[in-house]
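Question (not urgent): is this output format expected?
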Amino acid sequence: MEKAEKDNNYTHILKYTGLFGGVQGLNILVGIIRNKLVALILGPAGMGLVSLFNSTLTLLSNATNLGISMSGVREISEAYDQEKENYDADGLRACPRLCQAIRVIRFWSFLVALFGMVVCIVLSPLLNRWTFTWGNHTLHFVLLSPVVALMAITGGEMAVLKATRKLRALAASSVYSVIATLLTTVPLYYFWGQAAIVPSLLLIALIQLLLTVIFSWRQFPIQLIWTRRQLFRGVGMVRVGIAFVFAGILGSGTDFLIRTFLNRLAGLDEIGFFNAGYMLTMTYAGLVFSAMETDYFPRLSAIQQTGKELNRVVNNQIEVSLLLVSPLLTAFITAAPLVVTLLYSAQFAPVTAMLKVTLLSMYFRALFLPMEYIALSRGDSVTFLIQECVSAVLILASVLAGFSLWGLTGTGVGLFVASILIFLYDISNIYYRYRFTISRQALGYLSFQLLTGIACCVLTGIFSGWLSWLLGALLFIVSALFSLLIIHQKTHLWENIKEKLFRK
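Got this back:
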């Protein structure tokens, strides 16, 4: 019975990882064209400028949105679970608690949107001074202040769709947004170059808002009630969201400080290179992790007590994530020179070595990311914030030290070292707080796959040409076969595939 339950858990994780990873992959494929064109038009310096504006706006958004997009999911989800049957039978009119929860989150989303825009305008002179060493970009930040407001409202509407399980609507709005962004912003960059960066960022935020609102308001029509009661009803949600705010500030602040440091020490080109390598790693290699927030986190939150059940769910998530991401990493490391050229341009060739080393950090991310959700699922905001603080300090210190010692490649080394240190901290902290222990199987999978990845990184760096491709391909086959055999043992993969084929 226990074995069958574990097999079902593995199958469930594989199913939803494939679903959400596939949606994210589709978005990425459409986004590849846009990134390629923008990189060719703007070059490394222009990409670095876009990165500076984006990181600053993200920092402001995370600092002013009060965590509504995360805490709101929990509030609405509770109401939806209680009134789901009424909603399916009679529609929204039969769900008073759900309607109330949605009205509260929309009220607070508009409130924090206005607050974020005002903060951006007031701080624009300081943002200019902290971010740039040349020119006066104060007016640019003033003009970009509506982006912070649009991001806050979009986050609130996405929380409504997530909490009510409208995943198809979420996927559709995301895909349409990427396509619309491609068709509207690339012509602006082509005709006006760097002068189009600010208008393009505004247009992107507006497109994302409009498409999200279309799907959200169709399911749940807008009903804004501006009363003092609505304000106080959201206080509990905001209190929970404060932890997410500080976590967002830590993450965005670290990102902001790294890019500011590189800008002052090396210039925009170096920022463009770093941003390219970092985004390639987190976006493309992170496809496997895209189901964490949507599927894994709710399942983890449903477990009432720590102990055997929680250990099993977390370890299963770790094992599946590691088995799925490892072959992808060996393939990515092997094809890194080609990937960089195709997705950006030949000007970004210096980022290849950094990218290969940074990809190694994903092995440890597959381990510590599921563990870090434990504190969130328990509502333990203090432990969650300490985790984020430690991670931010380790990443910042490691990346800056790595750049000082070995330049751009050193930033990749720093990210890899930081991932190891974060894992060691998390495993000890989570054991102390929740008595969680990582399974021997997960550690065994890590040992084999990490050695394969390191060998791939070293050999493809030493050799070049057809020999590099051959060695990388062989290591990919070894990694993929290992993962497939383990997954087959856990889920009876081949039998399930045959059954589906015969059905068709």
